[in-house]
Amino acid sequence: MGLRERKKEKTRLAILDAALDLFLEQGYESTTVEQIAGAVDISPRTFFRYFTSKDHLVLWFHDHGEGLMMETMRSRPQGEPPFTALMHAVRAVLSDMEGSTEDEHRRFLKLRRVLDENPQLIGQSVARGAGTERRLAELVAARRGTDADSDQLSHLIVAFAMSAMRVGFECPRRDGGMPEITGRMAETIELAERSLRPGWDL
Amino acid sequence: MGLRERKKEKTRLAILDAALDLFLEQGYESTTVEQIAGAVDISPRTFFRYFTSKDHLVLWFHDHGEGLMMETMRSRPQGEPPFTALMHAVRAVLSDMEGSTEDEHRRFLKLRRVLDENPQLIGQSVARGAGTERRLAELVAARRGTDADSDQLSHLIVAFAMSAMRVGFECPRRDGGMPEITGRMAETIELAERSLRPGWDL
DNA sequence: ATGACTTATGGCACACTATGACAGAAAAGT
DNA sequence: ACTTTTCTGTCATAGTGTGCCATAAGTCAT
User: Fold this and answer.
1) Contact B167 A159 (CB under 8 A)
2) pLDDT-based confidence at residue A163 (cuts at 50, 70, 90)
3) Nearest-CA residue of chain B relative to A147?
4) Which among A3, A51, B21, B140 is most buried, taking Cβ atoms within 10 Å?
């Protein structure tokens, strides 16, 4: 990795950290892009070259998670029931979280607090999920040998899986640490698996 | 109902219709508030008194549906299992759709086409759903005698119910009429009910 | 009807987000 | 060192959304 890329990555994280701190200090709405840019000493124009929008800051982690899920889904055996494969994908995100660095943990916990204090943002995050669900539904439909456009069950399978993930993410108490959060997420996943009829997703 | 209120309602619908037509003609992004206001001969400033934002136009129906669901939930017997009550609420939205006027049907079908051509908007709609889910989860937790903050199952129950509703709404073919859409939605609801283990939501 | 009261509207100014165009600086490859 | 590519800042501009104030329209007395 060249100097250029390293520098870019550093800037990107600096923006992210500065933004999260500002959001926690003075709220999301009342923080302007100009302030964020000022805090890391770049021009506002440059901010938009790193993040396509102010919202995008908050969706950063979501995008990372989606990539991971898509990857996992493709690597699971084709014969595996789709919901099972999806649950593996969700667990992959979970273990990625567990395996990340101290810095990333801090960033993640900050993000969580920001989301908690600005509920409209979790809406944004969920909105991003709509696209994710469509892409996952394509993969599920392929597994089931159906057409994603017309097969409602494929969509339902994905929707249920993402529901479990979302509930697991939002539900844990706000003040807990990383192990508590991942623990609760794991519980929710099991809860979802237990709630469904065996073979419902074939 | 006085002249004032009737006039307001008329303006509101005029704005909505003009906006949907413009969105279909030239796309959501490339339609400005100024154009919409111009089409119904009001000032842009007034537009924002009827709809808090451009997005709000699209969320109009969602808000109506949420009101209906909350109402239905409160009117169902407290002893009824929460998921069953939620499914009744979803069906209430469905029969409201079936029972509405020709004009409302046309409006609804237009909205559906707009959503289909501008996927980022269905994100917006789903985002609004995040708030809805939280409010519904409160009602479900009350039924189950638990605290919504800590009870993951309450959230999961609501999330599953809303998933069924969303899939039913989005999945039907785009060119179908109203009866086809409601029919497909009913199918999805039954599919969801069949997928879950009896008694999972107690 | 006339007047007083309330509410809706329009116009203006303004803050903020976001994007396009262009020129200069920094890094990469040769 | 030279060229090419990529990143950056400056400037200009479009569009959304809000506060404020004067005016117009609807409402309700007498």
Assistant:
1) yes
2) very high
3) B171
4) B140
